[in-house]
Write a structure and sequence with these properties.
The protein is mainly beta. It has 6 helices and 21 strands. β2 and β3 form a beta hairpin.
C-alpha cells in the first residue's frame, strides 16, 4: 500500500533522506502505521513502521537521517530520526520501528558551550543568538535559518552558564510573563512571535460532541492551582522572589502556594520575571479537554493545529461548577495526535486548554 493516505482532498506522504540535505531522496513506499504528534510547546514527534527488507529500512541511518512529512504536496514538518528498533518473528516477520523528533525538540540534545550574557536584548534575538551559537560548534550546524524574529517589545537581561541545556533555557524564556512563542518549521526556518494567545489564529469550526468530536473528556485543573509562588535562584547573586496573584486576599479558595527553583539563574530581574510568569500560569489552571475528532471533519472543515483558538460546546450535563453551565467555552489547542494505518484509516485526537470559565 502506498504511503499516500488519501482522505477527501488531503494526502499525507512521508519521505526520508540525509539530514544534511534540503530535500529527501526516497519516498516511503510502504508502512504499517504512521503517528504524528504535534505540540505547541514541546515540539513534535513522528513514528512509523516499515518492513525490514524495504528500501526505506536500507536507507535510513539512526541520528543522521531525516523524515519529511508532506500534506497535500506541501511541506508539513521535518524530523530527525533518533531511534530505530527491529523485530523478527516466527512467521518471517521483520519490522523496523522508527521514531523521529522535530528540530524544536532536538534543542534538548544541545548545551551552552560558552557562557552567554544578554543585556537589554529582545527576546526573539536572544533565541536566535542561542541557536546560532550551538550551530557554530564543530559538527553543530542543523541548517536552521532565521525567519520572522518579532521581539514584541520585550527586552530581557539573561545570563546562561556553560553546560546549561538549551531546550530548558528556551522553554523557561518562553514561560515568563509576556514570553515568546517560537518554532522551527519544515523548511528549518526559525520563527519567533508574541506568545500572547491573541496572536494565534481563530478556528471557526466549533468542537461539538456528535459533530466535529466523537468523544470529549474534561479534566479539572485544580491540581496545578497556586495563587502564590516562591522562586529561588543562585543563592550567591539573587534573593528569592515571591509573587502573589491579584485578588489573593479576597479569593474564596484562600492561599495556595508553590515553590520552584532555578539554581542556575544569576540575574535578579530574570528571577522576578519567572515568578510573575509562574503565578499567572498557576493561578489559571482551567480545565483540559481531550477530544477525539471525527476524521472526515478533520480533513474537511476541522483541521485543528496547535495554537489555534477554538470554541468547545459544553455538554449539558457538565459537573463542577454546580448550576447551569454556559453554552460554550473558549480554549487553545496544545497538542494534536494523528494516527494512520496502511489501509488509509485516520484517527485524530487533541488536547485543548480551556481559557474561559464555564
Amino acid at each position: 500500500m502506498a504511503v499516500g493516505v488519501a482522505i477527501a482532498e488531503n494526502v499525507f506522504t512521508i519521505a526520508v533522506g540525509d539530514s544534511s540535505s534540503s530535500l529527501p531522496v526516497q519516498e516511503v513506499a510502504s508502512f504499517d502505521t504512521l503517528s504524528l504528534s504535534l505540540s505547541l510547546d514541546a515540539g513534535g514527534e513522528c513514528s512509523f513502521t516499515v518492513p525490514g527488507n524495504s528500501a526505506t529500512a536500507l536507507l535510513i541511518n539512526e541520528l543522521a537521517s531525516d523524515v519529511w512529512v508532506y500534506k497535500s504536496g506541501a511541506i508539513f514538518a521535518r524530523y530527525r530520526i533518533i531511534s530505530i528498533g527491529q523485530t523478527w518473528g516466527p512467521d518471517n516477520d521483520d519490522v523496523v520501528a522508527i521514531t523521529a523528533v522535530d528540530y524544536k525538540r532536538l534543542m534538548n540534545a544541545r548545551h551552552v558551550q560558552t557562557a552567554l550574557t544578554f543585556s537589554s536584548v529582545g527576546q526573539a534575538d536572544i533565541i536566535a543568538a542561542i541557536i546560532a551559537q550551538t550551530q557554530s560548534q564543530p559538527g553543530g550546524s542543523w541548517g536552521i535559518t532565521n525567519g520572522t524574529l518579532d521581539n514584541d517589545g520585550q527586552i530581557r537581561d539573561r545570563s546562561y552558564a556553560l553546560g546549561e541545556n538549551i531546550g530548558t533555557i528556551l522553554a523557561n524564556l518562553a514561560g515568563v510573563a509576556n514570553g515568546p512563542y517560537w518554532s522551527i518549521d519544515g523548511g528549518l526556518v526559525l520563527n519567533v512571535s508574541s506568545g500572547d494567545i491573541t496572536a494565534f489564529p481563530i478556528q471557526g469550526t466549533p468542537i461539538m460532541l456528535g459533530g466535529t468530536a466523537r468523544a470529549l473528556t474534561r479534566s479539572g485543573g485544580t491540581g496545578e492551582f497556586a495563587n502564590s509562588v516562591f522562586v529561588d535562584g543562585d543563592s550567591a547573586s539573587t534573593v528569592p522572589a515571591v509573587a502573589d496573584a491579584p485578588g489573593i486576599t479576597t479569593d474564596p479558595r484562600g492561599r495556595w502556594e508553590r515553590a520552584v527553583g532555578f539554581p542556575s539563574v544569576t540575574e535578579q530581574a530574570t528571577l522576578t520575571q519567572y515568578a510573575a510568569g509562574l503565578v499567572e500560569e498557576f493561578n489559571s489552571p482551567l480545565s483540559t479537554w481531550s477530544c477525539d475528532i471525527d476524521a472526515a471533519r478533520y480533513v474537511s472543515d476541522a483541521a485543528f493545529s496547535p495554537g489555534d483558538r477554538v470554541t468547545v460546546v459544553v455538554p449539558a450535563t457538565v459537573a463542577a461548577p454546580i448550576g447551569s453551565p454556559g453554552f460554550s467555552v473558549t480554549g487553545q489547542v496544545m497538542n494534536v495526535a494523528l494516527s494512520f494505518t496502511a489501509d488509509g484509516s485516520l484517527t485524530v485526537s487533541m488536547q485543548v486548554i480551556q481559557t474561559s470559565a464555564i
